[in-house]
Amino acid sequence: MQPSFDNSRAKLSLLPLLTFVALFLGAGLYLHSQGVDYAFYQLPAPVAILPAIVLAFWLNKTSINQSVETFIKGAGHSNIITMCLIYLLAGAFSAVAGATGGVDAVVNAGLSLIPPAFLLPGLFLIAAVVSTAMGTSMGTIGAIGPIAYAVSIKTGIDPALMAGTIVSGAMFGDNLSIISDTTIAATRTQGCEMKDKFKENLKIALPAALLTVLLLVFLTPEPQAVETKPFEWLLVLPYIFILVLAVMGLNVFAVLFSGIIFAAAVGFAGDYEGGAFVKDVYKGFTDMQEIFLLSMFIGGLSEFIRINGGLEYIAKKIHKLTAALGKFNTKVADQLGIAALVLTSNMCIANNTVSIIVAGPVAKKLAEDSDISPKRSASLLDIFACVMQGSLPYGAQALLLGTTFGINPFEVSMSSFYCFILAITAVTVIVLRRNKA
User: Fold this and answer.
1) What stretches of 100-219 show up as alpha helix (H) in DSSP?
2) pLDDT tens for each residue of 176-189
3) The domain containing residue 371 runs over which residues?
4) Among 311, 313, 262, 246, which Cα is nearest to 7's?
5) 2 lies in a domain?
6) Does residue 223 have a pLDDT over 60?
7) Which residue has the higher pLDDT, 121 or 302?
8) Count: domains in the chain
9) Closest C-alpha among 435, 428, 425, 433 to residue 214
10) Burial status of residue 333 (CB atoms within 10 A of its CB: 0-12, 13-18, 19 or more)
């Protein structure tokens, strides 16, 4: 039997989630103060959430059997399971396409096409294309970061500016890619199709990217040529293949499965072997282990919050905070509420995917209450999570590039111009298109 709603119970139901955030954030801050590298990634999120789950069981005030059923219902929700299966396939595609040389091919193809006078905007576009194809900002930074550092040394471009340019391009693709875990989380929690979210997102991300390119053209110093390595255009095709299929509206499972087979076929045309293919598929699965487990645990935890009225309580509080704006337009107020919700979540957790999973249920309720389309709420979740993630000096992206370039991560985050431009563009679209949400 579902517990009846009351204000005290609703507030108390949020305590486990706050416990998870406090543990995750607190451990990161402490380890960072001790000078530990990647401090916010030393405590795995699936482990940090376990005490919160135990607390949720205790607060539920029902039998252990009923609490287990509640947890399993949330963890096994169709949206959660679908999301987890998509994670596995996306990981497999990324691993296979990367193992066959696709990432290096895309990077070198882009560098060969960049005129020296447009080095910074060109590298931004390369990072954007690679991250859109790979679906991961960290993978993109890992692949392009060392190349960008070498280019920075050779040309004399400010390292912070170069690093910020790479983060900017990486976050563009992380936000937009149909195989990005942020896209998967946003679309599944809001209940919309990936192609619809992609098109809605593009209306905001593309103008922001164009403005970023113009800014970087202005900031690019005197031109100097950059050496590129040989590459095969054939290896670029798997990324183009899945993007085309996704935009055509093909089922996401079919898109990713076809992409895995296509990437393998391209590899088999060279020296890629069947044994390596099988191992790379499994490696792709294991690469998604953390987010797979966390998604299920968050799903179970969210079910406790839902049945005890926590989601309704948060939605009411956000409605109250945005009441002044609501007098102007309710849709604008609640869209800004969704943005504030995921920004705050990401600032605490320092992981854009996790912040979307945490904020997703409340965002969905806000969207439903104000008749905001699922594709718009999914787009806003993904956009503002990536805005915050790309701007955090303690985010993995800034930390990795800070290490690669030998500079302070704060310098990296302050030079991530695309993230700031994206935030301004998104707010502008919210206000100007307030009746078309």
Assistant:
1) 102-113, 119-134, 137-155, 159-176, 181-190, 194-219
2) 888 788 888 899 88
3) 7-432
4) 313
5) no
6) no
7) 121
8) 1
9) 425
10) buried
